[in-house]
Amino acid sequence: MKAARFYNKGDIRIEDIPEPTVAPGTVGINVAWCGICGTDLHEFMEGPIFIPPCGHPHPISGESAPVTMGHEFSGVVYAVGEGVDDIKVGQHVVVEPYIIRDDVPTGEGSNYHLSKDMNFIGLGGCGGGLSEKIAVKRRWVHPISDKIPLDQAALIEPLSVGHHAYVRSGAKEGDVALVGGAGPIGLLLAAVLKAKGIKVIITELSKARKDKAREAGVADYILDPSEVDVVEEVKKLTNGEGVDVAFECTSVNKVLDTMVEACRPTAKVVIVSIWSHPATINVHSVVMKELDVRGTIAYCNDHAETIKLVEEGKINLEPFITQRIKLDELISEGFERLIHNNESAVKIIVNPNL
């Protein structure tokens, strides 16, 4: 079968590899669609990062480069391993793509996403969604309604990142939120916030991303920091108080500064983006306003609620898909487009079986 294999920075090859073995306790999935994540792009441009370098196997998967890529994917079950009796062949599914030790608890209230040596399917090994087929442990397979188109279902994984950020924020219906950055995660986070009855203000420079936020209907107000003083505009929109919660989604220090200044006293600032460089923060403002600054990473028992939001029609994922490509076009139409024209691309999805 065809698969996209990461060898090293700038070196991803489309190769023929053996089909996976559907072992006891696993589910065999025909991959329908797989999204290209910002993490995948960073691996291509700067890696290996999450991917174990050649000769340095991951302590759980036992794999190192080359590995099959892709962790945002949907598909159809083609086989179930011994002991799996609650999933049937033909069911539509998405995957929560974790690589976690078998003895780590994953029930309600656990923090398995923070466990030692955690990694992701499609990065740390265990196959990936940028292949025709994959076998995944039952724990990480989530059935979805056939009414959710499989191309849209591939966005449930990044949508779950947004849902976890919302959970971390403690935001509630009627609150006002400021989202800094309308990239893929910022937009999907805003969709979750709107679905939860929260008023959303987005700050964004890019015209294409502002247009996408308007098209998707995920913002009540969109502010361009090159045109207005975001903090002053936020205060006008909140009767001089500031927002209840702010989400930083850019890894740009100026945006983080804006989030802090735009918050009302006792508000929360949630840092969603992955920072590859040190940042500064106005600690005086944090102290004087008693702000709560917290981080968020990936998801932890978020998929069920995220899927429910989509199945109930509270979130429409169609507007966020900006391109559909074949696996053979992964570099030319996927990575290269994201490198050179990322503002116009929200989510590029790949069909490995075309």
UniProtKB/TrEMBL annotation:
GO MF annotation list: L-iditol 2-dehydrogenase (NAD+) activity; zinc ion binding
Domain Enoyl reductase (ER): start-end pairs? 10-350
Cofactors that this protein relies on: Zn(2+)
The lineage's top-level taxon is Bacteria
* Keyword terms: Metal-binding, Oxidoreductase, Zinc
InterPro entries from the xrefs? ADH-like_C (IPR013149), ADH-like_N (IPR013154), ADH_Zn_CS (IPR002328), ER (IPR020843), GroES-like_sf (IPR011032), NAD(P)-bd_dom_sf (IPR036291)
UniProt similarity note: Belongs to the zinc-containing alcohol dehydrogenase family.
Task: Spell out the protein name for this chain.
Answer: 2,3-butanediol dehydrogenase
Q: Which gene encodes it?
A: gutB
